[in-house]
Amino acid sequence: MIFDIDLKKIVKWLTPYFLWKPKQTAWLTILLFPLIWLYEQFLTYRTAMLREATTNSQVIRLTRSLRDRYNNESIYISHFSDYINQAFVYLELEGSFDTFDYLSGEAHLPADYDFMQTEYEDQFDFVVRIPAVLTAQADTITAYVNKYKLASKRFKVEII
């Protein structure tokens, strides 16, 4: 579909050649101004709908959509399985320090991971982390993510 319409050219094409005077052409163009304005509004709406049509519940698409909508590149979505994978890589590749363990020096048992316990709780399926600048828009971000997430998924918006 072609949406490139030049209404000024159409004015010139549809008027007879003996009426191609500057005043006549300007008058007809001014009469068509509401139509030109509606056409520009339609193109803006079409662009917004095409952008919205590419947004879905995939993490990378939803993250990109949030970043574009709120104009902030520090928004990201994290899954709890990401932490587990990082902990596994840490334990497998780097190992533990046998010479001196700071956690055991503080009189408590060391854990197998170096993340907080809340990052392992499964109350939520994913977390949307937003910067403190967007604190006032946290409700609109929640509504936007809720619109695109899968029905059974639980999430929370966390301010960093």
Produce a short descriptive summary:
This protein has 160 residues and is mostly helical.
Question: Overview of this structure, please?
Answer:
The structure is a single chain. This protein is mainly alpha-helical. It has two domains: 1-53, no CATH class; 55-160, no CATH class. The chain is 51% helix and 9% strand. The chain is built from seven helices and three strands; from the N terminus they run H-H-H-H-E-H-H-E-H-E. It has a three-stranded mixed sheet. Helix 7 (138-148) links the parallel strand 2 (126-130) and strand 3 (155-159). The protein is rod-shaped, with a radius of gyration of 28 Å. The relative contact order is 0.11.
Comma- or semicolon-separated keywords:
single chain; about 160 residues; mainly alpha; 2 domains; three-stranded mixed sheet; 7 helices; about 10% strand; rod-shaped
What separation lies between the terminal Cα atoms? 44 Å
Helix content: 40-55%
Shape: rod-shaped
Which structural class best describes the helix and strand composition?
mainly alpha
Characterize the biggest β-sheet: 3 strands, mixed
Instruction: Estimate the strand proportion.
Output: 5-15%
Order of helices and strands: HHHHEHHEHE
> Can you count the helices?
7
User: Order of strands in the sheet with the most strands?
Assistant: 1-2-3
Low-pLDDT residue spans: 88-92
Rg (C-alpha, Å): 28 Å
> How many structural domains can be distinguished in the coordinates?
2
Could you tell me the mean pLDDT? Answer: 80
> What is the total tally of β strands?
3
